[in-house]
Amino acid sequence: MLLLQFSTSHYCRKARLALGYKKVKYEVENLTPGFHILKLKPLTGLTTVPALQPTPEPTIGDSTRILHYLESHYPQPSYTLSNPEQNRYAWLLEDWLDESIGTATRFVYYDWRSKEGKSINPSLSSQLVINIVRRQYGITPASVKLAKERLQNAIEVLSTWQEKPFLVGESFSVADLAAAALLSPLALIPEYRQEYPWLFQRIAETHQTCGEPLPPGLD
Ligand SMILES: N[C@@H](CCC(=O)N[C@@H](CS)C(=O)NCC(=O)O)C(=O)O
């Protein structure tokens, strides 16, 4: 099984957490941003990573579809909750985290990398990539402000993690997995680390559960 990815993408981290949780053996191919489209478009019709190639079956594009594929082909250990209503809620959180919060994280993270976080990699080439990403996704002061508000709301929704290790019900679900991956880039930003230590503790625990190396900032 081959995972087509960008090594630094939090959506690819989400797919790796799922593969690790299921203890599926896989290899990775790191694609070059920009040229990735040439490889992906004919395979999935999409232009985004991650994509999973479970030969001989067709390539699966989109991290949510990868999670569904893994659950149906590798049922144990499961991330389906036994209570159907809770399970539906966990997938709803997964979809919201994927479609809204993962994007908000990207906006806040790349904005920070171009300002206070410049010291992470001040090289011209790194700042050039960051500027391309900011332009590609329309990361502007107004969109970053909105993203910060969205993250604030998300952290309140996820505050269930303060009391117990699972966001929904009493066992590990796709909500835990998606939250751990899609909020992980915030681990480098001091304000979030100081204000929400519990969030990063759960993100680290989820990585340990899935056998995935910790994200930058928590490693
Ligand atoms: N909802 C998609 C989002 C994936 C996504 O946004 N991937 C980014 C990397 S973090 C990407 O491939 N961007 C390149 C592009 O849009 O061309 C998923 O869950 O797979």
UniProtKB/TrEMBL annotation:
<dbReference type="GO" id="GO:0016034">
    <property type="term" value="F:maleylacetoacetate isomerase activity"/>
</dbReference>
<dbReference type="Pfam" id="PF13417">
    <property type="entry name" value="GST_N_3"/>
</dbReference>
<protein>
    <submittedName>
        <fullName>Glutathione S-transferase</fullName>
    </submittedName>
</protein>
<dbReference type="GO" id="GO:0006559">
    <property type="term" value="P:L-phenylalanine catabolic process"/>
</dbReference>
<dbReference type="GO" id="GO:0004364">
    <property type="term" value="F:glutathione transferase activity"/>
</dbReference>
<dbReference type="InterPro" id="IPR004045">
    <property type="entry name" value="Glutathione_S-Trfase_N"/>
</dbReference>
<feature type="domain" description="GST N-terminal">
    <location>
        <begin position="1"/>
        <end position="78"/>
    </location>
</feature>
<dbReference type="Pfam" id="PF00043">
    <property type="entry name" value="GST_C"/>
</dbReference>
<dbReference type="InterPro" id="IPR004046">
    <property type="entry name" value="GST_C"/>
</dbReference>
<dbReference type="InterPro" id="IPR036249">
    <property type="entry name" value="Thioredoxin-like_sf"/>
</dbReference>
<dbReference type="InterPro" id="IPR036282">
    <property type="entry name" value="Glutathione-S-Trfase_C_sf"/>
</dbReference>
<dbReference type="GO" id="GO:0006749">
    <property type="term" value="P:glutathione metabolic process"/>
</dbReference>
